[in-house]
Amino acid sequence: MTLPAKAFQRWLQGIAPDASTADVCRVSGIKRTTLAQQLVRGKVSVSTVVSISRAYKINPVAALAGFDAYRALAGPPRPPTRNELVSQVSSADLLHALLARPAMDALRGAVAPALSPAPHATSVKNWVDAIDDGEVRHRVSASTGVAPQNYSAQLTANRLSPELAMATALAAGVGPAGGLVATGVITEEEAGWPPGARQAALDSLSDGELTALAGDRLQALGKVLRRQEQDQAQTERIWENLG
Amino acid sequence: MIETLQWTTLAICALMAVARIPSTLRRENRSLFGIFASMTVAILLSIQGPYLIIDQALGGTNLANLLLRFVIFGAIFFMGLRISKGFGADSVYRLITGRTGLLVLLAVSVVMVALFFSMDTAGSSAGLTAISAKDARHFALVEYYGAAGRAYPAYVALALIPAMVRAVQDRLPILIRIAAGLLAVGGVAVALTLLFPLIPPSMGQIEFIINYTAVLCFVIGLALIWVAKLIRGRTGASRRTSTET
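The joint structure predicted for all components is written out below.
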């Protein structure tokens, strides 16, 4: 959901009272035409607010919480669940961690490399799966009016609008900022996730849990790759006959 | 307006045929050159001026019109064959090259030739309009002859439409999906030619528009697939991170 330009202007007045639009753009790295267009349309994007917040050393979550649509972000951050944390570990890191486990006959002293920061290539889908009790998609669809197939399409593309990310977190009863981390709008740190929380969550998985999770990830990845290969083969066949 | 449409279509077809010459010399999908070349010939034969010249050379008995019909049959046969094979529509491929398809082609051809020779076709006339005007019997014969000539292309087109509609919805490069859409529109246009007897003579222009829409959609659709192949190196393989199943 975009933010109303009026509320945005008010907020901007509060944090940078003397700055011109040009100054704000320069400091935050936003293209002037982009911001001008958003203001003319009366719809300012969430990423604009996040960029400006970072430029002025304000926590973007706190900044967003000042807008009506994101009021749920206000208050002390709710810690992420273990499932959420693990979902934000990339499949490659997960496999590295698995290979370093004794259960995999890991060489003594083998150490998995440090985790790459969230988000990763399938972080949105993995996050929703991690908090889904089986009915979350229906509840999000009912509360936002977004058709289930459009919701699925966003997950497929590893995207989720900030509005839907928030709605999903609320529908699942987890901390409201988790979806914004999974979609890469804000960082873990900005969401108040403790440093090393993902690593700790990963380490807390038993060998069995980690292996099963890695299996699920590999299976999903295999499906995607196989489908891409099929699409590619179909395209090749078309070119072979008609190119 | 009709004249412009005719000559433009002719130019596009001829251009495509010429553009395919290098690939043809490299022995890549030579039937595509055949398709474009025969479409060019077909368009040429459906324009008044060239028709009269060619028919005069053939003896002035409208044999050029019969030739035109078979050139169209050839083009549509090979087009249906390549398209169904390319898009993996095996059932369509069987419908065209299998016993049913060949029987339809044979039956239509026999009927068409029989009708042609049962007419007094002396006197070159594009679209056989002068022959049709001779008497009531010739009017009817020309109508049946025309219907037979439209029947086979419509058969192939109807067989192709569902596969093309499916291809539009598939996860294929966007140019190929647009091409499939154009081929589907072309197929619908060819199928619509079956309804020509229902169009009142005063609205004869509609027939021209449908015919040339069909040809243009087919030619541009096939050209787009080729273009998509030529530019694939630049765009690279699509890297999608789709996980939803």
